[in-house]
Design a protein that fits this description.
With about 725 residues, the protein is mainly beta. About 10% of the residues lie in helices and about 55% in strands. The chain has a 22-stranded antiparallel β-barrel. A five-stranded mixed beta sheet has the order 3-8-9-6-7.
Length: about 725
């Protein structure tokens, strides 16, 4: 739905709704092994680009993509939003920047931000489902690839760019975006940046769902409160005292303000007909707060909490208790593309080399609690034979040094090395397009404490795309995918005594790794049916994934200092579901086109012996009605999510919701290629309380309430 209705808010004035399906299907997917148009691949792919991406782009990838079929947002407040693909997140999905991993620590903990800025993207491509063939085991659940042209792939003559300002009422958020590209002769350059400041997020009602928090503690077999409170103290606490202890707030989420600055500079030198070499530098900085109650940490002596009046204190918590994350990452990219290297054998050679230096500290008031450092080198070489039968031979390498320092560092310093070799080939007939491939991976993880672990994995994939008629096509994708256990799954709290066990602050539990874990293997099937005309499209996808030795956290039923103890275990599991998306031109009147979009998705995940998989998204269905003329566009949309009544063991259910949004945009063209776009969005019009089942933070921080977002964008 969202793909085809982009013009309703920020579409170019000259673009009619009838052209959208064509542009959608003509987009060349660069995230797949053999670059293909969207209409030519059987893989389940979501693409946001152009005007649609400008409309939907938000401060995080999760918020940007969260309403797409098969994709949800795992929010941890306004500073963090990580996409969840078909219920898979964490170490099972990879966030890529221009084809190379972001190399942050967002997969380690749900309160860690993804170091990618969506508002600088040219396009975002999502592979919904296993993509281990090209990107290794970490993509067993899917891939999100953000492309921003920081290394211009084509020569640019003259200067072009855009300047944008946005204001979002929900968090009093100011965002500025600047982009400038140009060149001459063989040289091209790119400069871009975003600058963002935001206040505490406004919400409908109380931030903390105290009843849900109590229910979860009952499920875990824990008494509420910190260990220093005795049973007699608990009996004396009434509901009001409980609220103060949880540091609740009404109408806003305390300590969720922050800021971010992101800037990129890059350039390329073009030689020959299609060859280029380029370099780029990116710096990502953000500082954001963690909502009260969502981060378990040492609160100090009891007297710090007793007798606090909080009179005239809007946020009802002391400065020393605020948890903030200060994140900095520097990234250096190099690319080399050479065509006709050895015609008939190697028609294209693509080389990528990236170095990232990542650091973030968790601040407790003015003191550093825990520091995370990560240095990563990643290289990639693809040798392509073009022609009737495409072939790609590729080599991928990654070297990673990770270290966590501080009281809440529950994962030991670990060096990792990964090697991957893959081969993909396709075959064509008049009506069929087949693609087959395989990959071998070697992964070694060497912790500072304990013995190193190594894994050898194999992945296989086959797809078939059949053109039924001019308007109909069907696709089938089958694959075997394998993933080596992550560092935290293997080594969390390894070799720590009971007194030394460290709580994972973001989840509020003690997690204990297992160095004897086996690799995780999934067998996957996707079946899709597509219908496409100049005025409409519809896509229906069924998927089924069965996992051998799925890695998950199992509650031991034990507790240390009133904190539940979980261990990483393995069990077989299966996931299945359906995704649907469509758009139709309904009528033309008043000089414009009326279009209707529909979408829906559903997923079920079950362990063989451990019940429902936790934090899965509920069934959703949505619709959008839009009208657009040459200069004016309006839309209204509705998204309905059902109750999540199967939250998984030791997890609380979430209520369903219905969210209404609307928007209007006006586009003015000036001489040449200059355009001015003004837009207004009305979000969550009915002020619905929304708590996402995919979020670890759902009981402590709901989604924004009723708000207005407005902006203006100058393109030249």
């Amino acid at each position: 739905m969202k793909r085809t209705l982009l013009a309703a808010c920020v579409g170019a004035a000259s673009q009619a709704m009838a052209a959208v399906p064509d542009s959608r299907m003509e987009h060349v997917i660069v995230t797949v092994p053999i670059h293909k148009k969207a209409a030519e691949t059987a893989l389940p792919v979501t693409v946001l680009s152009g005007d649609e991406l400008k409309r939907l782009a938000a401060s995080s990838l999760g918020e940007t993509l969260g309403d797409q079929p098969g994709i949800s947002n795992s929010s941890f407040g306004p500073g963090v939003g990580r996409p969840v693909i078909r219920g898979q997140g964490g170490p099972r999905t990879i966030n890529l920047s221009n084809g190379i991993a972001a190399a942050d620590v967002s997969s380690l903990s749900p309160d860690h931000a993804v170091s990618i800025e969506p508002m600088l993207a040219e396009s975002v491509e999502v592979l919904r489902g296993p993509a281990t063939l090209l990107y290794g085991g970490g993509a067993i659940g899917g891939v999100i690839n953000t492309l921003d042209n920081r290394i211009p792939a084509k020569p640019i003559e003259g200067v072009q760019g855009a300047v944008e300002y946005r204001y979002d009422e929900a968090a009093d958020m100011d965002t500025g975006v600047v982009k400038l590209e140009g060149g001459g002769g063989n040289f091209a350059f790119h400069v871009s940046g975003t600058f963002r400041e935001f206040d505490d997020l406004e919400i409908p009602g109380l931030a903390i769902d105290e009843a849900a928090v109590e229910r979860q503690e009952e499920l875990l077999g824990l008494e509420h409160g910190h260990e220093e409170h005795g049973e007699e103290d608990h009996e004396e606490h009434d509901e009001h005292d409980h609220e103060e202890e949880l540091e609740n707030s009404d109408g806003f989420i305390a300590n969720t303000n922050g800021d971010s600055d992101v800037y990129t500079i890059g350039g390329s030198y073009h030689f020959g007909e299609r060859n280029f070499v380029g370099l780029a530098y990116n710096r990502f900085e953000t500082n954001y707060g963690i909502p009260p109650g969502a981060h378990e940490h040492d609160h100090g002596d009891e007297e710090e909490h007793e007798g606090e009046e909080h009179e005239g204190e809007e946020h009802a918590h002391g400065e020393e208790e605020d948890i903030r994350i200060d994140l900095e990452q520097e990234r250096y990219d190099m690319q080399l593309h050479v065509h006709d290297l050895a015609p008939g054998l190697i028609d294209v050679a693509r080389g990528f080399l990236t170095y990232t230096d990542y650091e973030h500290v968790e601040l407790e008031g003015m003191e550093v609690g825990t520091q995370f450092d990560r240095e990563t080198w990643e290289g990639r070489l693809e040798l392509v034979r073009e022609g009737a039968d495409h072939r790609v031979l590729g080599l991928q390498w990654r070297a990673d040094e990770f270290e966590a320092i501080g009281d809440e560092a529950y994962v030991p310093a670990t060096d990792s090395a990964e090697w991957g070799l893959f081969y993909v080939q396709d075959f064509h007939t008049a009506d069929w397009l087949f693609e087959v491939g395989g990959r071998a991976d070697y992964v070694e993880r060497d912790p500072a404490t304990g013995a190193s672990q190594d894994f050898t994995s194999f992945s296989l994939s086959g797809t078939a795309n059949y053109t039924i008629s001019a308007n109909w096509s069907a696709g089938l994708s089958l694959s075997r995918s394998a993933r080596a256990p992550s560092t935290e799954e293997l080594f969390s709290n390894l070799n720590n005594s009971e007194e030394q066990l460290v709580t994972h602050a973001a989840t509020g539990i003690i997690e204990i790794g297992d160095p004897d874990l086996d690799e995780e293997v999934s067998y996957n099937a996707d079946l899709s049916l597509n219908w496409q005309t100049e005025e409409a499209f519809a896509e229906l996808t069924f998927f089924y994934n069965t996992f051998n030795d799925y890695i998950f956290l199992l509650n031991t039923g034990e507790a240390v200092d009133e904190t539940a103890v979980y261990v990483y275990e393995q069990d077989d599991a299966e996931f299945y579901g359906v995704e649907f998306e469509s758009s139709f031109d309904v009528a033309s009147f008043a000089g414009g086109d009326l279009a209707l979009g529909l979408f829906g998705d559903m997923i079920t995940g079950e362990f063989d012996s451990a019940g429902d998989v936790p934090r899965l998204p509920p069934m959703r269905i949505g619709s959008e009605l839009s009208w657009r003329s040459d200069a004016l566009g309006v839309y209204v949309s509705v998204l309905n999510a059902e109750d999540q009544e199967d939250p998984g063991d030791f997890e609380t259910e979430t209520n369903g919701y219905t969210r209404w949004d609307a928007g209007i945009d006006y586009n003015v063209r000036f001489a040449g290629d200059t355009e001015l776009l003004a837009f207004v969005k009305l979000k969550n019009i009915t002020d619905e309380e929304i708590r996402l089942s995919t979020s670890f933070l759902r009981n402590y921080a709901p989604q924004p309430g009723e708000s207005i977002e407005a902006g203006i964008r100058l393109m030249f």
